[in-house]
Automatic annotation (TrEMBL):
Domain EamA: 6-130, 144-274
Residues making up the signal peptide according to the UniProt record: none
Name of the molecule in the record: EamA-like transporter family protein
Organism in which the protein naturally occurs: Rhizobium tibeticum
Upper taxonomic lineage: Bacteria, Pseudomonadati, Pseudomonadota, Alphaproteobacteria, Hyphomicrobiales
Domain of life per record: Bacteria
Length: 278
């Protein structure tokens, strides 16, 4: 994988960790996730007029991705309510690229080099190491996290293929971002009522814009990278976002770091070096 692709994916991983930290710090994780999804759509709108429409073959993938993103955000909120983030996040983000690496040969007919495969597995092992740090968690939280890992792997395939068919990965990303917030807010209003949702939006709209901008930029960089390198290796490298999340937790949130965090960081960094050489 070229160095400039690696650096851009890592920058996207930093953005991903930042908007996830914003959800974690919020008072209502479900509505904050919806706000960030909507913020991404708002940030996308001004740029649509300057970009070509995705090719017709990509629109089916855009629709399928919207549904999968809706499920993803629902499972994220549910998993964070059920268990500790130290258990849930590593399981979600660590298992997904493993699933992709195991199946990409069948789905995309992509053959990973030995170095790329070892690097992918090493990064996933580092991420999963963080699960040992978790102090609380239930079987329900683990099931939700594993279910979401399957969803993440599925929408990664859908969007990786869709971005390639679209003819323009940036245009695909921006159009793909428009429908999920519609589904999320429709669901929130039907369950919470319009007044409660409107009050949350009134006081937290800034969170949606900042987090949404980071979210759309992060995923756009990943989809662009998938047009330049194998989907499995990009997916694994993108999950280094957990390393940035750990840095945020220690430096910004002043949380104590256990030895598992430092071990995981070393393993993830080693995986990144193997990917570069592979």
């Amino acid at each position: 994988m070229p160095l400039h692709v690696i650096l851009l994916v890592l920058f996207g991983a930093l953005l991903h960790a930042t908007w996830n930290a914003m959800i974690k710090a919020g008072t209502d994780k479900s509505l904050d996730a919806s706000l960030i999804s909507a913020g991404g759509a708002v940030c996308a709108l001004p740029f649509l007029m300057f970009l070509p429409l995705p090719n017709s073959a990509a629109w089916l993938f855009i629709g399928a991705s919207a549904v999968l993103q809706f499920v993803y955000f629902q499972l994220v909120a549910g998993a964070y309510r059920a268990g500790d983030i130290g258990l849930v996040y590593p399981l979600m983000r660590g298992c997904a690229p493993l699933l992709i690496a195991a199946t990409s040969g069948f789905v995309l007919n992509e053959k990973l080099s030995t170095g790329a495969l070892i690097g992918t597995i090493t990064i996933c092992a580092g991420i999963l190491t963080l699960a040992f740090e978790a102090r609380k968690g239930s079987g329900h939280a683990i099931r939700l996290a594993l279910a979401n890992a399957c969803v993440i792997a599925t929408y990664t395939y859908v969007d990786g293929i869709g971005a390639r068919l679209s003819g323009n990965a940036v245009s695909y990303t921006l159009w793909m971002s428009l429908l999920p917030p519609v589904l999320l807010f429709a669901w929130a209003i039907s369950n919470r009522g319009a007044v409660a949702v409107a009050m949350h939006v009134r006081y937290n709209w800034w969170r949606g814009l900042i987090g949404g901008g980071g979210s759309i930029a992060s995923y756009g960089l990943a989809l662009w990278a998938m047009t330049k390198a194998p989907v499995a290796t990009v997916a694994a490298l993108r999950e280094t976002s957990i390393l940035f999340a750990l840095l945020i937790s220690v430096i910004v949130l002043k949380e104590r770091a256990s030895p598992w965090r430092y071990l995981a960081g070393a393993i993830i960094a080693l995986g990144g070096l193997i990917l570069k050489r592979g």
